[in-house]
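User: Study the shape:
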Amino acid sequence: MEPTGDKITKKNVTTVVTAQATAISEISKRLVYIESSTVKQEGRNQNVIIGVLIAVVLIVAAVAVQVSVSDKRDRERTDQLLEKVYENQLKTAEVNTSLELLRARNQYLK
């Protein structure tokens, strides 16, 4: 409120000071609210970042486990196939030996 004319009265000064104090109080309350909202938002942001990091770690761990298990299965399959190949080589060698013995005994198979 502006004083009328050039005359400044105590009432006018008191009214202006009271209005300023009320405005300053409201601004202070709003700043406190904004500050608390900012702190809460920073906390939420930090929780989101932590959640994303945990998710990435879990995904990497899951992929590592799958690769490890896959490698183990592949190694087991390879070992089984190599064992079958070795067994077949032994059987082939036995058949060749039997055939050689048969040829040695029978002159017509030479």
About this structure: The chain has one domain: 10-109. The radius of gyration is 46 Å. Helices lie at 10-105. DSSP finds one helix and no strands in the chain.
